[in-house]
């Protein structure tokens, strides 16, 4: 909490007390500031006892330690067992029992975590597997949702075909992602590119394939008619 916020809270609560001292009823003050009478009287009592600066909310942290908190002797024993054996919480609990010490597994786990005796496993991200082609004719087709235009409530979608060898591109904008527009775009790509298309690679979206359902997709029927091979990306693998 910033000092500016702290001062603002104190000022607001002090203002309520000043209204009360001026003769305004507590019910009216509470209704105006949307608080309960119990809360108001709590602040009023705190103001009379400790003054204006104590009108801030007090810490709710218990003054005494929890009855289940581990004793320093047990914490030291847990850390020692962990360093020596690298045991987990269950095994450490058994080792403590041999020494006539008692602790819960959750509490035991917190000790090596606090003293950095647990090694965090690093997640290794798999790099996308690159592939190379030796001649033109291999394409990648993908779609992209565009932002709405000012004053126009509907979205537009971009179809992009990129040659894996030549890096030549064909881009068209459509008002929706659909099997019909995918077929239209494939015909446009065949018409625009100066080389014969051998194969096309796409993702598994509904505008390109029906996935596990054994039905002929209009897009698959079109590339079969044109004598083009269709490859699908493995899910979650760019």
Looking across the biggest beta sheet, what order are the strands in?
3-2-1-4-5
Tally of individual domains: 3
Q: Which architecture of the largest domain would the CATH scheme give at its second level?
A: 2-Layer Sandwich
Beginning-to-end CA distance, first to last residue: 44 Å
Query: In sequence order, what are the helices and strands, one letter per element?
Result: HHHHHHEEEHEHE
Strand content: 5-15%
Number of strands: 5
Question: Could you tell me the radius of gyration in angstroms?
Answer: 35 Å
How many helices does DSSP assign? 8
Question: What does this molecule look like?
Answer:
- The chain is α/β, with parallel strands linked by helices.
- It has three domains: 3-55, Orthogonal Bundle (Arc Repressor Mutant, subunit A); 72-114; 138-232, 2-Layer Sandwich (Nucleotidyltransferase, domain 5), CATH 3.30.420.
- The protein has eight helices and five strands, in the order ααααααβββαβαβ.
- The chain has a five-stranded mixed beta sheet with strand order 3-2-1-4-5, with helices on one face.
- Strand 4 (199-202), helix 8 and strand 5 (229-232) form a beta-alpha-beta unit.
- It is flat, with a radius of gyration of 35 Å.
- The mean pLDDT is 85.
Tags for this model:
alpha/beta, flat, Arc Repressor Mutant, subunit A, 8 helices, Nucleotidyltransferase, domain 5, five-stranded mixed beta sheet, 238 residues, single chain
């Amino acid at each position: 909490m910033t000092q500016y916020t702290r001062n603002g809270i104190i000022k607001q609560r002090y203002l309520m007390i000043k209204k009360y001292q001026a003769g305004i009823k507590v019910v009216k003050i509470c209704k105006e500031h949307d608080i309960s009478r119990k809360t108001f009287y709590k602040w009023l009592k705190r103001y009379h006892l400790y003054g204006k600066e104590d009108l801030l909310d007090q810490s709710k942290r218990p003054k005494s330690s929890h009855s289940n908190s581990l004793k320093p002797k047990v914490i030291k024993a847990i850390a020692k067992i962990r360093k020596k054996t690298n045991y987990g919480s269950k095994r450490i609990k058994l080792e403590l029992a041999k020494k006539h010490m008692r602790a819960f597994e959750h509490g035991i786990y917190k000790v090596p975590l606090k003293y950095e005796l647990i090694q965090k496993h690093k997640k290794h991200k798999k790099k996308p597997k690159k592939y190379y082609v030796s001649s033109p004719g291999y394409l990648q087709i993908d779609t992209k949702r565009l932002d709405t235009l000012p004053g126009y409530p509907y979205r537009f979608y971009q179809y992009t075909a990129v040659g894996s060898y030549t890096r030549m591109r064909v881009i068209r904008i459509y008002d929706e992602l659909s099997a019909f527009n995918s077929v239209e775009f494939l015909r446009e790509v065949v018409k625009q590119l100066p080389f014969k298309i051998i194969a096309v690679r796409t993702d598994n979206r509904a505008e390109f394939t029906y996935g596990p359902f054994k039905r002929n997709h209009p897009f698959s029927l079109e590339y079969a008619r044109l004598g083009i091979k269709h490859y699908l990306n493995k899910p979650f693998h760019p």
